[in-house]
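FAQ: What does a ligand-bound record look like?

Like this one, built around pyridoxal-5'-phosphate:
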Amino acid sequence: MSKMIVFDTPVESYPRLGADLGIDLRVKRDDLLPAPAGGNKVRKCASIFRDLVPNGVDTIITHGGAQSNHARIVAMESARRGLACVLVLHGDTNTQFGGNLLLSRLVGARIVTTSHSALWETVKRCEAELLSQGATPFIVPGGGHCLEGAQAYADAVEELAGQLQSDWTPDFIVHASGTGATQAGLLAGIERRQWQTVVVGISVGRVSARGKPIVEKCYHVLRARLGLKATARPVLFRDDWLCGGYEAFDAGILNTIADAAGSEGLLLDPTYTGKAFTGLRQLARSGFIPARSKVLFWHTGGLLNLVAAHALSAVAGNEPRNVASNG
Ligand SMILES: Cc1ncc(COP(=O)(O)O)c(C=O)c1O
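The answer part, i.e. the structure of the complex:
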């Protein structure tokens, strides 16, 4: 098995945000993974490019939404390796020019826009075109949703374990869950460590009926790959903070973002981590996460989704803010 890739992203205490919720809060800063604007896709793609992409490939194809972090990281990694890159994106690629899309274009990715329902068909058409032109393309799964991407997060739990003092093992890990590979990896990593940590994935787009079985499947395949034989952990995939779907958000999410930034400088975004942290706050306030619990918020990035969200100008005032108790 390949050697673990270690990034040692910081684990930081957030005493004011934690005190507001009555918990001992730490944050694993995967928003600081080493690529511009970081994020969990850096960790996943490092493993994917090392272990999945075959030698001899000259063009990478992947797919996602117009503001996909995964697409940006694949475009950047391709550029760094001197590979061509085709991004098949759904959504509005004409008016949403900034953020991830801008960076992807800047590093030379070819953008092919299509509808959500025609994504895979368009990916296969691009692949066929490239093959007919004599290129050697490789399709990286959308969102980095594959075993290599999931294993990167099982290994990230080992990284975390090496950073924590023996008296601080998380009772809960809360994070944004999309395609589910991050959550599947965290669950496998927790099981491998034999921690009793409860992992809560806060869905950023999928209803539980769709998202949870996908996490479960990925977790069980990864368990088999890693030879894990302890009791499988329950998959807690919460869809309570969807606000109607992917990229949708409401005043509660904006409040969370403003409070986290204003109280302790923690930057969240409306598509991913703002939803996840809103979930964490409400789980703590409802007692699902008991008082004084050790809670690790796994920050998965999203800075470019934050700066691309114009609606946020309404909450980004000039006045200092105190931690609010709503949201
Ligand atoms: C910033 C951010 N957080 C979380 C996620 C969810 O990760 P996963 O797809 O592994 O569930 C994504 C996926 O796009 C993301 O970009």
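Follow-up question: can I read anything off the structure? Yes, for example: DSSP finds eleven helices and ten strands in the chain.
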